[in-house]
Write a structure and sequence with these properties.
This protein is α/β, with parallel strands linked by helices. The protein folds into 3 domains: about 80 residues, no CATH class; about 240 residues, Endonuclease, Chain A (2-Layer Sandwich); about 160 residues, Endonuclease, Chain A (2-Layer Sandwich). It has 20 helices and 17 strands. The strands form 3 sheets. The chain has an 8-stranded mixed beta sheet with strand order 9-16-15-14-10-11-12-17, sandwiched between helices. A 7-stranded mixed beta sheet has the order 1-8-6-5-2-3-4, with helices on both faces. Helix 10 links the parallel strand 2 and strand 3. Helix 3 crosses helix 5, helix 13 packs parallel to helix 14 and helix 15 packs across helix 20. The radius of gyration is 23 Å and the shape is globular. The two termini are about 30 Å apart.
Length: about 500
Amino acid sequence: MRRLFKLLSSRLFWMFLLFATQTAFIVYLVLWASFTEGALFFFTGLSVVLGIIVMSRNERAPYKMVWLFLLVIFPLFGGVFYLLFGDKKIGKLSQKKLAAFWKKLPDSSSYISTVEDGYNKLSEEYKRTSTFIRNTTNLPAWSNTECEYFAYGEDFFVDVLKELEEAKRFIFIEYFIIAEGKWWGRMLEVLKRKVKEGVDVRVLYDDMGTISALPASYSWTLRSYGIKCCCFNRIKMRINPRLNFRDHRKILSIDGNICYTGGLNLADEYANDELRFGYWKDSAIKLKGAAVWNLTFLFLRMWGCLTNDDDDLSLYIPTISVEGSGAVQPFGDNPFDDATVTENTYLELLNNARRYVWITTPYLIPDEAISDTLKRAAKAGIDVRIITPHYPDKKSVFEVTRSNYQSLLEAGVKIYEFTPGFIHSKCFIVDDEVCCIGTTNIDYRSLYLHFELSVMLYGCDVIEDIKEDYEKTLMLSKQQTLEDVKKIGFYTWAKRFVFKLFSPAL
């Protein structure tokens, strides 16, 4: 009874109920209008016109194919639904705000050493990858950066609390999920003390990510403590074509000198203090030094676009110099450009690998480009291994993930499921030389619909720690075989087929 009451009183329940009601009402109106000859012609014509527009747009083929299928099968509703859910373009005003903010980027070379010495440790292929990221995102790679890897959530939270206590100038927090509980409660007490000490504390969280974890008025609660707060893309109780565009990033920048990122959100389940899907395996990385600037800048860009605050960005640059191995290049990705920088980086890593590529991802839903490159690498003799969860957090997505096993296995890709529970870390390790770790999953949402970030590590000592954790995780995982994946009934096959068909538009 208590669970039922909690469900019926949740904002998530009412949001989906209102969305379903509005969708049903739209369907009713279209059906009612279709009895009029002119309206029937109008709606059918709308679907035809939009079908032509969909084909002409610079979108990914799977996304276009789903909408073309819907426009053909449902000519009455297809056009209306595309206008409501399918248009991913950002408004002209928002484009101008983003462009204006980029122009405020200070000249980093005047206060931090460049990474040229780090480049000397890399092969030409990875110099090319780093140059591609910089030219696409305006975010360079840096030397003079220390890295520390956290293989377990509890270690991450303990370290965060220690560093928050040392903050002197500012604390910037941007997370997809923040949930009330043990760890966030401890962090919040520190943040409230820091505000009283004059530290600039800002919190930015995604409304969809926190919809079941925080009250709708939580931003006002934080402001009452003196914490500056902004809620990203607040959910409106109406059909909203921007519903899919979520801020999936994780940034915790302290004084511009230390920053954490990775798969971990600020909630108890990430430290296994709350068990939902078996043991939760996740990771985070801590940067100290020059490369922190890229992540601080990504936060300030998002904050400035949402609040119109006109910060002097030069006040937030790193103030310390540290010794570090290799080079570090954090970068962001967003749904409102055609760069697909993260996907292209993944493809570069796969194409440049000489010995192995080891991957962890909670969702294995690659598009054609990534799928073909994975297969080609495996057929070329590269040791391609992928660890996915054994227990799902989203059943429909889990079925799509498993539906992709067979073709990859037939090409020689090795796939393992983490049997203790759910693995949420997102990581590429290549040849002991390069690693990409961050927030981006191998699925359509992360690659095309979300704001994401990743950290490229070139020749850094910390890569050995990440590899060691991978090997330990592999020992707790079950290798999948062709015999395993073929042992499914017709119902499971049909379910996976339908979920996979519509996955690009979900």
